[in-house]
Structures are given as C-alpha cells and as structure tokens.
Amino acid sequence: MREIPCTCGATFAVEDHAVEVRCPQCERRELDVPANAASVTEEGNVLSYGRAAESQVRAGPFMLGFFGTLGYTVVAFVGLFLLGVASPGSDSGSVALRIVGLLFVIAIYTVIGWKARQLSKLPAWSGIGRGVIVGMCLSMIAMIPCAGVIIGGINI
User: Fold this and answer.
1) Rounded-to-10 torsion of CA 127, 129, 131, 134
2) HSE of 47 in the Cβ direction (CA atoms, 13 Å)?
3) Which of 124, 131, 140, 150 is the most exposed place for a label (fewest CB within 10 A)?
4) Do the beta carbons of residue 58 and residue 124 sit within 8 Å?
5) Does the predicted TM-score (pTM) go above 0.70?
6) pLDDT value, residue 45
7) How far apart (Å, rounded) are the C-alpha atoms in residues 146 and 80?
8) Residue 134 and residue 66 in contact, taking contact as beta carbons nearer than 8 Å
9) Which residues are registered as beta bridge partners of 13?
10) pLDDT of amino acid 131
11) What are residue 2's DSSP bridge partners?
12) DSSP letter string over 36-61?
C-alpha cells in the first residue's frame, strides 16, 4: 500500500498494482503513476506515457530540411552536369573523375542526413529529419537517372 495525493488536497492509500483509483473525498478519478513511467496523462481511456510531447513536428525545421535538401540537389546536379561537360569522352580518366564527383555528392548527402538526425534530437529542431528524408526521396527521383547519364553508363 502507498499513499497518492489528489488534486483536491486529499491523500488516500492504494494498492501497489492499482493504476486507476477514485478519490474518496471528491469522487474524482485519479491516475496512479507507474514506477517505470516518467509522467502519465489522461486522454479518454488511453494512458499516454512521457514521450507523447516529443512527437510534435515543427513546420519551420521541416521546411528548412526539405528545401535545403532540394537546394543541395540543384547545386549537386549543376556540379555533376558541369563535371560531365568539362570532362567529355569515355576514356578512363574522365569517367573516373565523374565517378569521384558522384561519390562526393553521395558523401555530402550522407553528412546532411547524419546532421539532420543529430539536430532532430533537439526539441526546437523537431521535424528537420523528416524534411530531409522527404527532400532526399524526391531528389533521388531526378538525381539517379541524371547521374547515370552524366557518368555515361546510360545513353539516351
């Protein structure tokens, strides 16, 4: 048995396994906080445990991640295009240079995703990771075929 305080000021004893009890003084239903939960709130008949507030996605960081990734895709596409124009031909040197350029673009995408993951752990930046993921998915629709054309593996 342990004692639980009510919002009306009364304190009452409950058994250790009880989760929902009624205050004998005001008849208000109270929720007993389980030992392994940080906080418990009442939402109808469902108990929501501590992490519910973290799922809120902020629009600003989402849009920054989305448009930032699309902006990088434009820069990367122009860079790959100029690299393809600067090193025409199918000799091994020019193909290798274009492949190195493509690997550099992929490395920067990896860094963007990793930094977005790091920032999304901060409450003020909630949503940037989702924006980056959506931006990368849409970017890859255009980038993958164009990278194949630029490297020379696919002829149109």
Assistant:
1) -140
2) 12
3) 124
4) yes
5) no
6) 52
7) 9
8) yes
9) 3
10) 95
11) 14
12) T-S-EEEETTEEEEGGGGGGPPPHHH
